[in-house]
Write a structure and sequence with these properties.
The complex is a heterodimer. By secondary structure, chain A is mostly helical. Chain A is built from 16 helices and no strands. The radius of gyration of chain B is 15 Å and the shape is globular. The C terminus of chain B is likely disordered. Chains A and B meet through helix 4, helix 14 and helix 16 of A and loops of B.
Chain lengths: 409, 116
């Protein structure tokens, strides 16, 4: 019974933890401009993140090493440092976007300007990281994030023409008013939103935090393989809501209030209350995960002691670096830069940086010296190499497409 | 001189012919014992004729997965070898020179590199 509960909890946490500000904004933007014609990218992204999380979780459980410890060992100091710089900066950008997302969601709930909420959000993130136990932190934000299911409920209540939606999803085409480069630019953004590198840093470091061994692999596999696809369905529901309400009205999403507008229309005040709780929980949870990820990557690369399982005094540099990251995030947001814009860029840069972490994990998950008998099977390797190609193409194509389309404008 | 200066330096034989670049430095932990581990001693240099970039660990093992990445990386570092510290004549700022009659060892680790 306890075991079933554990599995259920893990799955629910994975669903709630899947969606963050990147998924919220990108799916709504895409839904409002392209309908469901990019849903296939969410599917590709979800399979990809399942694969990546499965490999990095297995590496962490079998070898006790988290992602950046592996990268440091395999790439050597120079290439490793270049990798760290890129991954860390993009992660910092995501931290900034998530804190901005928390503040925007709190603004919607309270009508107090979001700039005033930013320090509050950042201090709350820091307090949780400093004091709260890892498993409690994970489960509370994950479970509260589940209220985002209201997007799916709202989609049903909106009584859309399911035939039209299915048509958009199953026979994808570039809408008449959009260009092909813009379509592909948003395809990459959506891919980056689903396969954000921090999820993997966090996942593998979390495995070490929770002291996983190979015995826990079955449960982790169930969490990932069931939880992430269901989380992906939430993403699709967000895009679906936008496609039903905003696309016909000619509104393309540029703010968080537009993201949740269809929920208010479909599910009324109660729905609005749920979605606000969900957005705050999802962005707050992701703010915790990204902030921890910045500490994890730095500490693992430089060989500092790290982890929430240690008291802060025993992992001083780990905690200090996270405080600095939060301060940098506050500083960036204090300039008045639009958090939604930061989010839109962060998901694309996530896609650009993805090969840097994917490749070392793929290689190490094949190495019996680390993995013992838990090396990748043949099927996993075939799929993983297919994804390597997809990830490389997305990474290389992102910058040219960004320039050509004026960042999707 | 620090280790970072040594990495990537051209490696020459005793006549000044170019053998490749110093791609990696190999250490053994057999110095004075301490609480956690013994002092490290430099065993030698891994010389790669074609590229000084990282091997991603493939020089140490005979691993061939995942295809074709492993093969690509091995091909880039084909002909690479380990020279021991004893075979190094001098280390200058711009090159490493080996003694005449140096031995080319396999860069694979003994217990893992069988069948190479």
């Amino acid at each position: 019974m306890k075991r079933i509960l554990g599995v259920a909890l893990g799955i629910l946490t994975a669903i709630g933890g899947f969606v963050d500000i990147g998924d919220l904004v990108t799916n709504a933007v895409v839904g409002s401009r392209f309908g469901l014609s990019l849903v296939w990218v969410v599917a590709v992204g979800v399979v990809g993140i399942c694969l990546f999380a499965n490999m990095s979780g297995r590496v962490a459980a079998a070898s006790g090493r988290a992602t950046f410890e592996v990268i440091r060992e395999r790439l050597g100091p120079r290439a490793g440092l270049a990798n760290l710089s890129a991954s860390f900066l993009i992660n910092l950008m995501t931290v900034t976007a998530e804190i901005g997302g928390v503040a925007l969601a709190l603004q919607l709930a309270s009508s107090v300007h979001y700039l005033l909420w930013i320090p509050v959000a950042a201090v709350a993130v820091w307090l949780v990281i400093w004091r709260v136990k890892f498993s409690i932190m994970e489960n509370v934000t994950g479970l509260l994030g589940l209220t985002l299911i209201v997007f799916a409920v709202a989609l049903f209540l909106l009584k859309p023409d399911w035939g039209v939606l299915a048509g958009q999803a199953l026979a994808p085409a570039v809408p008449a008013e959009e260009t092909a480069p813009t379509y592909w630019y948003y395809a990459i953004a959506l891919f980056g939103a689903a396969m954000t590198p921090y999820e993997v840093f966090f996942f593998s470091s979390g495995a070490v935090e929770e002291g996983w061994t190979v015995k826990d692999l079955v449960q982790s596999r169930i969490n990932v393989l069931v939880g992430f696809p269901l989380g992906g369905l939430l993403s699709v529901a967000i895009a679906g809501c936008a496609a039903v309400v905003l696309l016909p009205a000619g509104i393309s999403v540029t703010s968080l209030s537009q993201v949740i507008l269809p929920v208010a229309e479909g599910a009324g005040k109660l729905g609005l209350a749920f979605v606000l709780v969900g957005v705050v929980a999802a962005t707050f949870g992701a703010a915790l995960e990204t902030t921890l990820s910045s500490g994890y990557t730095l500490a693992q690369f430089f060989g500092w002691s790290w982890g929430k399982f240690r008291r802060p005094v025993q992992a001083a540099r780990f905690h200090l670096s996270m405080i600095i990251c939060l301060l940098v995030g506050i500083g960036v947001l204090a300039t008045g830069v639009d958090p939604v814009l930061v989010t839109e860029y962060s998901v694309v840069f996530s896609a650009i940086a993805l090969p840097l972490t994917y490749l070392p994990i793929l290689i190490v998950s094949n190495d019996p010296q680390y993995m013992g008998k838990h090396v990748n099977g043949r099927a996993v390797n075939v799929l993983a190499l297919a994804y390597l190609v997809v990830i490389l193409v997305a990474s290389v194509a992102a910058i040219p497409l960004m320039i050509v389309t004026g960042a999707g404008a | 001189m620090i280790l970072g200066d040594l990495l990537g330096l051209p490696v020459l034989d005793s006549d000044g012919g170019r053998l490749g670049k110093a791609a990696d430095i190999r250490f053994v932990l057999d110095g004075a014992p301490h609480q956690l581990m013994s002092d490290a001693r430099m065993l030698g240099i891994v010389v790669s004729p074609h590229s000084a970039a990282s091997f991603l660990g493939y020089e140490r093992t005979n691993l061939t997965q995942p295809w074709p990445l492993a093969h690509l990386l091995r091909w880039r570092h084909r002909g690479s070898f380990l020279v021991l510290w004893e075979d190094i004549a001098l280390i200058r700022k711009d090159a490493v020179k080996l003694r005449p009659g140096f031995t080319r060892y396999s860069p694979a680790l003994e217990d893992l590199g069988r069948g190479r």
